[in-house]
Amino acid sequence: MRWEALFADLEAQLAAQSAAELDVEIAELTRAERATVAIADRLRAAQDVVLTLRLRGGSAVEGLVLDVAPQWVLLGEHGRRALIPLAAIATVGGLGRQAAPRPGAVEGRLTLGHALRALARDRVLVQIDLEGVELAGRIERVGADHLDLAVGHGARVGDLLAVPFDGLRAVRSR
To answer: Can you tell me the mean pLDDT for 62-89?
Structure first.
């Protein structure tokens, strides 16, 4: 009987050690998986959720998540649309813990330039928020790292301001 109890005790110790090792391995794999999640993946999982984005420079935008790409998020706010470069976001409020899978090949290549070119093509009147400055007009051209904005309602193409993408905080439809 003593031998059986000794072997049962050794088996229980081995099972407990194996379970502890498995718990450590699961925790390590979870941390490694979380390290691959980008903010765009979490924003995509928040589709149709109202979020509050605090932007660099201190302003805030609150709206319903309509679309997300690797470089931008599109929010619906009070009947308007706000295109926010991810690089302009300081914090996100209201975001859950979920993450969506990585985007497909085509969606993964949609840059901020693509979204801005669509606004230029459609001749949309926009309000552009820069840090401490707001500009209104039409996007006339979009380059690799900047856009040309015809300022004002009756702006001529000669009245253009070049706006680097790095300075953009939000681009709102008017």
So the answer is: 95
- On whether both 17 and 71 belong to a single domain, the answer is no
Domain count, the chain: 2
For the cut 70, the answer to whether the pLDDT of residue 154 exceeds it is: no
Residues 94 and 127 in one domain: yes
Instruction: Concatenate the DSSP letters of all residues of 108-163 into one string.
Output: GG--HHHHHHHHHHTT-EEEEEETTEEEEEEEEEE-SSEEEEEESTT--TTSEEEE
Range of the domain at 134: 39-173
The tens digit of pLDDT for each residue in 81-91 reads 999 999 999 99
Edge to edge, the sheet with strand 133-142 lists 89-93, 50-55, 60-69, 72-77, 80-85, 168-173, 125-130, 133-142, 146-151, 160-164
Integer-rounded Cα Rg, in Å, for the chain is 25
> What does the pLDDT look like over 103-119, one tens digit per residue?
777 777 889 999 999 99
Polymer length of the chain: 174
Same-domain status, 105 and 142: yes
